[in-house]
Each structure stands twice: as C-alpha cells, then as structure tokens.
Amino acid sequence: MFDDKFRSFFKFFWLLPLIAAPGLILLGYYEAHQEHLVSFQGNTYSHPRGIHLTGKKLSISANQQVCLTKKFAAPGSLRVVALASAPGSGNTWTRHLLESASGIYTGSIYKDKKLYRAGFYGEYEDYVAGTVLVVKCHRFKAENSEKFETAIVLVRNPYKAMISEYNRILTGKNHTAVANPSDFSGEEWTFFVRQMGDKWFGIIDKWLAKDPNIHVVFYENLLKDKRTELEKMLEFLNIDIDPARLDCTIANQEGSFHRKSTNEFDPFTDELKTYLDEKIRRAQDLLTAFRKPLLPEEYFAKDFR
Fold it and tell me: By three-state DSSP, how is residue 215 classified?
C-alpha cells in the first residue's frame, strides 16, 4: 500500500511543472506589460521605472539620458491619433522624436519586425487600445480611418519623399540604405512616381475631409526647428511639455532610422515634374481653404528641389 501511495505521489509531482508553467507565463507577461505602463491623470503622467531602448550605442552625459526611457500609457487613456504620411516622409524618424520627447511609445498598423527589434516596442501593440501616442500609417482607407479620432499629417516635399521611398524599396525595405541613382529610371520608376503622387495628395485631401482639425507638420520645418515643431505636436496631443526631455531629444535626434542625406540627383522627367507640380498646387489650394499652414516655398522651386 505504501508503494502505491509513493507512486501516486511521484506521478502527481511530475505533473506540477505542467500545471504551473502556463500560470507563470501569464504572470510574467502581465508584469512585463505593467512595467511599460504610464498612468495618466488629465494631461499629466507619471513615470515608473523605465526600460532603455536597444539600438545605436550612444555616448551621452547623464542629463541627456532622460529621454531614453519610454512607456505605454494606461489602456484607454490616450486618443487614437494617426501619424499619417506618404511613404518616405520621415514617419519613423518623427516617431523617434515624439517617443523621446513624450516618454510614450508610438504604434503602427504595420507590425514591422525590424522596427520592433530596434526599440519601437509599440509596433505590435493594439493600436486602438489607447496606449500609444500616435499610430504610423501611410494610407487612408475608410474602414481603417474610422478607428482614428484625428491625425497628425506629416508632409514632405514629394520629390524628396519619392526618392527616399524608392531607395527603401530597392534596398530590400532598408530604412537607411541608399540605392544606385541609375535605378531611378524606366517604366517602373514612372509608374511608381504616378502612384505615389496620388498617395501623397490623397493623404492631405482625405484626412482634411475626415477631420478639418488635424495638425499638419512639414518634414522640412521639423528638420530646421525640432523644438518648436515638437512642442506644437505635443500640445495637439494634450501632452505636457518637459523641457529636459526636449533638450535630451534634440541632443539624440538622429535615432536608428534616419537616412543620411545623399548627393542630390534629378531622376524626374519634365512630364513627371508637370504631374507632381499639379499635385503640389492642388495641395496648396486645400491647405489654404482649410486655413492650415502652407507648403514651404521650396516645394515650388523651378530647379530640382
């Protein structure tokens, strides 16, 4: 009888790890998620212990580290706001700046593994959960747009945006690599420009139609005056501005996904320039009608932009 009880005990003993494992996994996930939360009260937020981003190794002083910790917001505490732009407009870099300046992760509709591994931990977050600051998107679809309350529309000179995006495509969707200028020609390039021209104008047109109160920011202005443009975006998002985080953000402005400028070349035929210039003119008319900031003068330059 003793042997039977002994055997029964050991049978049960070996089952314990199988029973306990799922509970431990769930507990670990819960604690990990809680580690990223930031609680909101009105327009203010408190910062629990932070998690440092992985990516480029930075050599910085102590006062330049304050912007390296980011959190998820408490579920439902933030509006669902799109960071909408045509591809190649600096969306990922703008996310880096916003995350650093606010301390809150940004999200995306794309679930990009490369970006997640580089520290954009909101990439796989449920973007309608109200836990991320803004949500990256490059297209406007009726079924998706209804999930957003409003948007920050990021606009870049379409000539530069198209070269940037075609670089990314030709280099295997690498966010920082540069392709050979000779590849920017032929039927594929022409088709790409016409397709992207429609998308560039459509982002402005459709978001203004959905919500006339969207915030419009120009990539060129962000390059020139990061502090002012970031302050405007944070105010639009109802986030209190932390001067120390802004200083730190500007000191560490590049991030891991900002393609370096290359020697300019002009791959646009006269026909493509006529097509794009018409899109630019129509966009300016829309911005004027909705009393939004107007396109920078360089968009209308006669020589190559």
Answer: strand
Please give the Cα distance from 90 to 240 (Å, whole number). 24
Residue type for position 250: I
Strand 81-85 and strand 150-155: the pairing is parallel
pLDDT for res 30: 38
Nearest to 98 by CA among 237, 218, 223, 203: 237
Distance CA 127, CA 145 (A): 12
For residue 84, give the 3-state DSSP assignment.
strand
What length is written for the chain?
Answer: 305
User: For residue 155, what are the CA distances in angstroms to 125, 142, 302?
Assistant: 25, 20, 20
Tokens matching residue 140 = 């406007």
pLDDT, tens only, 19-48: 554 444 344 433 434 444 444 333 333 333
The b-or-e profile of 263-297 (16+ CB within 10 A means b, else e) is: eeeebbeeebbebbeebbeebeeebeeeebeebbe
* CB burial of residue 46 (10 Å; 0-12, 13-18, 19+): exposed
Residue 61, CB-side half-sphere exposure with 13 Å CA sphere: 5
CB burial of residue 239 (10 Å; 0-12, 13-18, 19+): buried
- Write the DSSP string, 46-68: ---S-EEPPSS-----GGG-GGG
How many angstroms separate the CA atoms of 40 and 174, rounded? 36
